[in-house]
Target: alpha-L-fucosidase
Amino acid sequence: MNLPCILAYGSFVLLFCTLETSGAKYEPNWASLDSRPLPAWYDKSKIGIFIHWGVFSVPSYSSEWFWYAWKGQKIPGVVDFMQKNYPPDFTYADFAPMFTAEFYNSDQWAEIFKASGAKYIVFVSKHHEGFCNWPSKYSFNWNSGDVGPNRDIVGELANSIRSKTDIHFGLYHSLFEWYHPLYEKDKANNYTTQDFVRTKTMPELYEIVNKYKPDVVWSDGDWETTDEYWNATQFLAWLYNESPVKDTVAVNDRWGKNIRCKHGGFLNCDDKYNPGVLQKRKWENAMTIDKFSWGYRRRANINDYLTLKDITKVIATTVSCGGNVLINIGPTHDGRIAPVFEERLKEMGQWLGVNGEAIYESIPWSHQNDTTTPDVWYTAKKTAQGTAVYAIVLTWPKANQLVLGAPSTSTTTVVSMLGYPSNFSWKPNPGGGMTVQIPVIPFDQIPSQDAWVFKIQGLKN
Model:
């Protein structure tokens, strides 16, 4: 096996490599599985879209954990909501026929995702409620083929993404289900039995990989027991060695309570994970536009949603430290992407249309954020002329002077702003670094409104 593109940044060695698997066989243990290089497309992509859609989108109240909040945690607000609006004998399963998806148009979704500038998506095939968004052979009457939409939700989206975009298609899958009787039995047996894994979890995983050929398998629901119960290493060895996506698939780290943030492909660690410093391994920041939920909430107000300025800050702070951003939306029960989500995604796409040079296929620089001025984050890119450094500026500089402490200038240093046609003048600072003088730019000629990218070439560092 070749590892042709190991990249070193200071003391860090990052496996952002092209996968070449001729003759490779990965053993079902973490030492072997972790030796597999991450497919190059994943690191280059930087931006993904997460989509949480399921039966929880029907009550669209509280969050995608609605069932557990109602029956497990018995959160007073959720219990009160059910008592006021539904009969006493109403069950969570009664929501499923209301998951109608009559306005679900996967082609329209694909166009929105394309306009967002995202390079991959991760669609929830099954959340912790256990409802499968495809006609699974292993989920009798609790799947989108048998109840609710009576459609192959996953298959339709996979076809649209692949026929209308160049976006990589990925799937989220929850290992466990809150109230499945076989899981509850295995749990009561202290996980010494594996009936749920044998008859439900693993058959589903093999089914979605063979049927839909996802480029991402995003596992979740791992935290109650270890990878041994889930047979995670056996599945991943098959995925890497024999599956139809063995050369292209990327996986995360949620394969057991003892595995997260330690093993797997890229690291999620926690929801909204954003360490703010360069990591030794490739990682992903899975975060939400709705600050309080991954699923759609009818009661959300406009202040509950991230603005484009918020989103560009997340992108800058994540990508500069070597991470990808997975930005979540929650569709409605009838299959619409709410206008607020569509607007945010298209705004992001417009920003990336100007500034994507600093994001896509970038690499971490020697500094992640500036040593003098706050709200400045760096990325870099190797070019034929040397390393181009990008300073992502989240706050417009006072008096139109951008003071930077990290760059080490030379006589050939050139500074420009992405989306603006002219170079900017600059001078070295006495103690190191540089000050960039920004000319007066007419409002209608400023390329961005929420974050600005300065491209610096010809630096010593």
Summary: The chain has two domains: 7-358, 376-457.
